[in-house]
Amino acid sequence: MPNIVLLVGASGSGKTSLRGDLLAGLREDLPTMPLTSAVIARDDILEDWAAQSDKSYTVTFLTRADEAEVEMFRQLQMAVEKDKDIIIDQTNMSRELRAERMSYIPDHYRKICVTLEVPLLELLDRIETRRVATGKSIPDFVPVNHLGMYERPTHDEGFDEIYIIRPEDPAPQQVPQESLTPGI
């Protein structure tokens, strides 16, 4: 049975770093998480296009974000057609956005959601650290907006497993199947 892992979290929450751990099979504290063969990420598409055109990520985002979204869904469709394991690395902060992405996923997939809940000040620190290291700049209002639209994932969205990762917790918390209300 193929797996879909939908990552949820504001900019700077650590989704892409976690994705690297999942791909490398390094998350012993998440034993049911799969090694995957397809990563779907709009940011990856935009970063590739920026590098190819010698433009910054920000300029590319401002001019090609919608086009990258179309490409992301094309890649998702191709991965599903090949029955690949998939990680979707995007903010996915609302039920509506998650439903749109999950509508592409057939019933035979095991559906896993991993949400990273990081406080605003820590997000801002991480984003600044990334800006200094990579030059990728994200305005402060972006994570503020992300947190404002955040709806914690629930099993009634169709997920078989939900994990919540917080910086202060020693290990990810799995949301019990019968827990259909926010909180653990």
From TrEMBL:
Gene3D superfamilies in the record: P-loop containing nucleotide triphosphate hydrolases
InterPro entries associated with the record: P-loop_NTPase
Annotated organism of origin: marine sediment metagenome
Pfam families for the chain: AAA_33
Protein name: Uncharacterized protein
